[in-house]
Automatic annotation (TrEMBL):
InterPro entries: ACT-like_dom_sf, ACT_dom, Chor_mutase/pphenate_deHydtase, Preph_deHydtase, Preph_deHydtase_CS. PANTHER family: PREPHENATE DEHYDRATASE P PROTEIN, PREPHENATE DEHYDRATASE-RELATED. This is prephenate dehydratase. Residues 14-189 form the Prephenate dehydratase domain. Residues 203-280 form the ACT domain. GO terms for biological process: L-phenylalanine biosynthetic process. Keywords: Amino-acid biosynthesis, Aromatic amino acid biosynthesis, Lyase, Phenylalanine biosynthesis. Pathway: Amino-acid biosynthesis; L-phenylalanine biosynthesis; phenylpyruvate from prephenate: step 1/1. The lineage of its organism: Bacteria, Pseudomonadati, Pseudomonadota, Alphaproteobacteria, Emcibacterales. GO terms for cellular component: cytoplasm. It catalyses: prephenate + H(+) = 3-phenylpyruvate + CO2 + H2O.
Length: 294
């Protein structure tokens, strides 16, 4: 795991992620940055810090999952960090039932993984009659299995975790929902605004007072100017019930006339608007829109 002393590796080759080697965030790093070395970090905070202090050039951070919803920790960290979103990546979550080499299904009685992964594979686990036990993360469960070498135990994790820890995939694609996909954002110390002539996502934070119609008035400009808001998350500020902070994604570029008008109206009704990034839309997002006929 990363520490502040690990600075010998050139930061231009490193991308930080939270979790053990073999985690789905690690897999996302390999998919999006195949030529970069990944830097595992014990916590999300440590992954953010690795970029802020120059250990890594980028961080690959999960923001939401199509089954489990938002990753709450990230929305709490974003306002307190000085990083910029420079890209997005959608990673299909393909769960594998990993076992010690030579293990058969009838040998198993226990499966370990992160609680969300266990929940996402609940149907298959019940079908196989296995006891499910939550562990800190998916790759960590695979690592544990490789260490304790229990032939009665399996781990649910990525194919990459199986590769790293010398495990076999007894079953693959065991997630109950075929659409199980995690959206990641790529963070950098340096701001890099995408050009306005390509499909973009713009992410920003803003605050409103907890008074009637505050959010309705603040967001009215996006509706009247035809701006698609794809994400809106709210949370209280420092435990206060007098104001709320919002995290929002829109499709568009700040230089677009319609986006400019919407942001001007937002500014009139809110406080402390902070642009987190304007970055290219992922191919996955564009393809999904085409499938939906939009």
């Amino acid at each position: 795991m990363a520490t502040t002393e690990q600075t010998s590796q050139s930061n231009s080759t490193l991308i930080a992620f939270q979790g053990e080697p073999g985690a789905y965030s690690h897999l996302a790093c390999r998919t999006f940055f195949p030529d970069r070395e990944a830097l595992p970090c014990a916590t999300f905070d440590a992954a953010f810090d690795a970029v802020e202090n120059g250990q890594a050039e980028f961080a690959m951070i999960p923001i939401e999952n199509s089954v489990a919803g938002r990753v709450a920790d990230i929305h709490q960290l974003m306002p307190h960090k000085k990083l910029h979103i420079v890209g997005e990546h959608f990673q299909r979550v393909n769960h594998h039932l990993l076992v010690l080499p030579g293990t058969k299904m009838e040998d198993l009685d226990l499966v370990r993984s992160h609680e969300q992964a266990l929940g996402q594979c609940r149907g298959h686990i019940a079908e196989w009659g296995l006891k499910a036990e939550a562990y800190t993360d998916t790759a960590g469960a695979a690592k544990l299995l490789s260490q304790i070498k229990d032939p009665g135990m399996a781990a649910i994790a990525s194919s990459l975790a199986g590769e790293i820890y010398g495990l076999e995939s007894l079953r693959e694609g065991i997630e109950d929902a075929e659409h199980n996909t995690t959206r990641f954002v790529i963070l950098s110390r340096d701001e890099k605004i995408a050009p306005s002539d390509i499909p973009c996502v713009t992410t920003f934070l803003f605050q409103t007072r907890n008074v009637p119609a505050a959010l309705y008035k603040a967001l009215g400009g996006f509706a009247t100017n035809g701006i698609n808001m794809t994400k809106l998350e709210s949370y209280q500020l420092e435990g206060s019930f007098n104001a709320s902070q919002f995290y929002a994604d829109i499709e568009g570029h700040p230089d677009d006339p319609s986006v400019k008008l919407a942001m001007e109206e937002l500014d009139f009704f809110t406080n402390d608007i902070r642009l987190l990034g304007t970055y290219p839309q992922a191919d996955y997002r564009i393809e999904q829109r085409k499938k939906a006929g939009q």
